[in-house]
Amino acid sequence: MSKFVVTLLNISIIALVVIVAFGISTYALSKKMTDYNNATGVIVGTIDKKDSIIIAEARGNVSKIYFNEGEKVKEGDKIVELINPELDSKIKVLSAATNNLSAKTELAVASQAAQQLEIVSPVSGYVSEVNYSEGETVNPSDRLYTIYTNEDTRFYIELSDQEYKQVMNLDSITAYSERLSQFVELNFSNLSPDKKINPDDKESKIGVFFTLKNKDDGENLLHNEEMTLLLDEKKEFTSKPFDVINGVWSKILSVD
Amino acid sequence: MKSIKTHYIPNSALLFIIVSPFTILFYATYVFNPANAGNLFLYAFQLTGDIIAISIVSALWLTILLDLFQPQHFKKDYSYRDAWVKSKKPTVDVLMPVANEAIKVVEKTLINVIAMDYPHKTYILDDGHSDEVKALAEKHGAHYISRPKENKRHAKSGNLNHGLQFCKGTYVAVFDADHVPKKNFITELLPFFENEKVGLVQTPQHFINTDNYIASGTAQAQDIFYKYVQPAKNSYNSAFCVGTNMIYRRSALTDIGGVALRDHSEDIWTSILLHEKGWETIFYNKILAEGVAPETIGSFFRQQNRWSRGGFSLFFTHNPLFIKELTLDQRLQYFFSNIHYFSAFTVLIFLLFPIIYLLFGLHPMDITNSNNWFIHYIPYFITVYFLPWFLLGTIKMSTISTSAASFAPYLKAFVSVALKNNYKWVATESKSKSVYLLMSDIWPHVLIIVLSILAVVVGWYNPNDVVTTAVSTFWVLLNSYVLFLFIFHGVSKKS
Q1: CA nearest B434: which of A5, A114, A76?
Q2: What is the pLDDT of residues B164-182, one digit of tens each?
């Protein structure tokens, strides 16, 4: 082999290597871009509310149900009224015999029990279940109402690694409720995510809870209702890689 | 009495001995816990790479540690008496296998071989059939032996055995054409043979051309071997022959039927045969010959390829762990030397990982909590990456560079051993001017460098995880710089 041929061969191997390298990285870049463009930008999660169960404390017949399923309740609202004819007549008899000391004590006990016949909501929220209708008999510790409270309304969502990182990079996190046509601003409830769901799964997801930034937003949301998480900053994110670097710098120097 | 061992262990090496088990275990608890796995396919490679790296470092750790506890325990009663040599006056032959090395190199060695102060006969064994070498031998008064061309088999070992037929001395010294002995070489080594079990006395290969980048890298990597590994092997009667700068007992060679007939790495095979037959070997840690390490990419890769071929073929065809005739100590020591060459896989895997992350966003570990990874990795990384610094007190860029780059000849050797390809011997510093196609050796390095640069561009196109991207970029750039230095110095030397 002459020197010329060797040089030619060396150059062609370099050219081949460069072509292969460019091929691989072009493939990688285009895959990255299509993945990004194909990402829907919205991910659906659900509202998670704590339920509060209202239990009867005394025996009686339901005389009045004040709220039906789905209706909003405020803390302190009267929600059920029971009557107990035996107790009523007992009170009448006892209040007649006012001089007897033991009767007095019994009267106090009976009127206490009578007060328990009026049931008041301990929380604000909305009624999810009413288990008795008017006229039915209720025993102590029977479940009368289930109320979803407005306290501790959370938003639960399952994210892929990619989506999780994307969300972490957002400045503000917003979800949208289609039913209410309303935007809801969210906070991370804790920064470390829950454990991966199905670690064996190839596309295992990370479960994350958000709390509401504005607690009043929780009033109108229903338990298990779907909301979509917006990754709206996507556009800003894609086209300007330098913004990311600037972002890092401003975070380090805490410019804002 | 003279001590066989003439080195001391520096404090930084003791630090390595004490600290490395902790850093390695700390890292292992993280890496070998499948709960921390990221991409499972890459995780399998991560495990492979780490198992190899940890095995090699642990083997070195154990070797140095055992030697600290029981230095030269089997040679406690070895005496070293000049008187024995003076009374016995044993005869010595010096063999100089030559295969197309540059005539200047051969002449310099020949002059110094003849000038050694102990009376000896010098034989030049020329496999290159060169008239120049023949004239040289006649000029300096050395015996010239050349094998008939049609009978040229088994490269250097065949050449040595052919030469052995013509010499009758009790002891046989061997020097490669590029290793120049000092005057007192034979006088210093011969007294060890008073013990009749000793079949081989070996001295270190010492390289003097450390002004060259590639050669200085090789030299420092070799330093670890000759400062720590061989002396420790010596303590367990498993110091092995390195092909040059040693003296054989002729009757020991006859006992095993001559130098082992191999196309390459006949040195380690001969040592194993000696040990199998119960002979003892001595590594005498004093520089008594000065050699030249390969200076060009081509010769460096040829040398590394030959050594690693020896390692792999021993591992797969005659695994020292299962040789019944050897003691358990010897088996372990040979095995430890063997597995070194598997480091090529680790190097390649860890060169590719940051590139894969930047290109495809795939990571072998779960890095959603990246801190955890760093905390476990950094101490381990320091102990392993800066190992020469711990053991030798210095670390040269050339050492990192040449050891990183030598994954290619190792893997090439692995593939050809696996495919059972025949080896064609070419001397490390061959002067034969068959044109050398540089890119056929360094295309993997060039590919990694080009891919690294492109990967950085792709990686910073809207990165998902800025921290991991930044760390990967650092790695990718450092790795390509290290490989670039190797190519740069290798190529600029070539012209």
Answers
A1: A5
A2: 888 888 999 999 988 999 9
Q: B465 and chain A: CB distance < 8 Å anywhere?
A: yes
Are B286 and B304 in contact, with CB atoms under 8 Å apart? no
Q: Domains in chain A and their CATH numbers?
A: 40-49+152-248 (2.40.30.170), 51-149 (2.40.50.100)
Q: Which of B386, B186, B359 is nearest to B288 (CA)?
A: B186
- Rounded Cα distance, B446 and B441, in Å: 10
Can you give the pLDDT at residue A17? 93
Residue in the structure block whose two tokens are 């991910």: A43
Mutate to test the interface with A, among B439, B440, B468, B487 (most CBs of A within 10 A): B439
Mean pLDDT over each residue of chain B, to the nearest integer: 86
Q: Closest CB to A22: pick one of B454, B462, B465.
A: B454
Paired sense of beta strands B289-291 and B206-207, if any: parallel
C-alpha span between A67 and B468 (Å, rounded): 55
Please state, in angstroms and rounded to a whole number, the distance separating the CA atoms of residues A182 and A192.
28
Report yes or no: B371 at the A interface, CB cutoff 8 Å: no
CA dihedral for B430, B343, B63, B74, sign (positive or negative): negative
Instruction: State what percent of residues in chain B have pLDDT above 90.
Output: 36
Contact B460 A241 (CB under 8 A): yes
**Token couple for B306:** 């030959």
* pLDDT given at position B246: 92
Mean pLDDT throughout B246-252?
92
- Edge-first strand order for the sheet with B280-283 is B143-146, B121-126, B92-98, B171-174, B246-249, B198-202, B280-283
Q: What is the ipTM of this complex?
A: 0.81
Does the active-site annotation cover B127?
yes
